[in-house]
Amino acid sequence: MNSPRRPWLRIENLVCEIKEKFDSIEDGEISPSSYDTAWVARVPAIDDSHKPQFPQTLKWITDNMLFDGSWGEESIFLASDRILNTLACVISLTIWNTSKTYVYIYIYTYCLDFIKRHAEQMMEEIQANGTSKEFEMVFPPMLNEAKTLGLDVDATLFKEISKRRDVNMKL
């Protein structure tokens, strides 16, 4: 017989397992991913405290913003990758209302400016090289979420990505 508390026990066990895995990782074993970290940062606390379950991820995000206002692999510049990572990080920071301090206001302004400055370059890369179906599936909903959260992301340049996604969805 399933008790109403049983799903919470499962969640608590999974959270403990994730924490143990993070604690067991030594430097150099994996390369941190700003995109993945941003998604983990969105996980709400299991105690329903309206806080993140993993607050250290928000600190990691703020500590690892690159000099140009983006997140991603510093040694390789691919506009689509940087914009996707940056958008994911800014959304995570916004979800937890971290924008109330001067530091975060600066981050938002700088990061959203990065996205706008590199939007055309990203679209040129896509025109020249195409995109992955995974990117086409993930990026438009993230743009919609950013707009819903009140982030000033001009999505007009990105309409082509949505069109490609729609075509691929019909295949």
Describe what this molecule looks like in 3D.
- The protein has 171 residues and is mainly α.
- It has one domain: Glycosyltransferase, CATH 1.50.10.160.
- It has 7 helices and no strands.
- It has helices spanning 6-24, 34-41, 55-63, 79-95, 102-129, 133-148, 159-170.
- The longest helix has 28 residues, at 102-129.
- The protein is globular.
Strand content: under 5%
Provide the CATH architecture: Alpha/alpha barrel
- Summed over residues and divided by their number, the pLDDT gives a mean of 82
| Series of H and E elements | HHHHHHH
**CATH top-level class:** Mainly Alpha
Biggest sheet layout: none
User: What Rg, in angstroms, do the CA atoms define?
Assistant: 18 Å
**Outline:** globular
Strand tally: 0
| Tally of individual helices | 7
Our count of domains comes out at 1
CATH topology label? Glycosyltransferase
Helix content: 55-70%
Structural category: mainly alpha
Cα separation of the termini: 44 Å
Low-confidence stretches: none
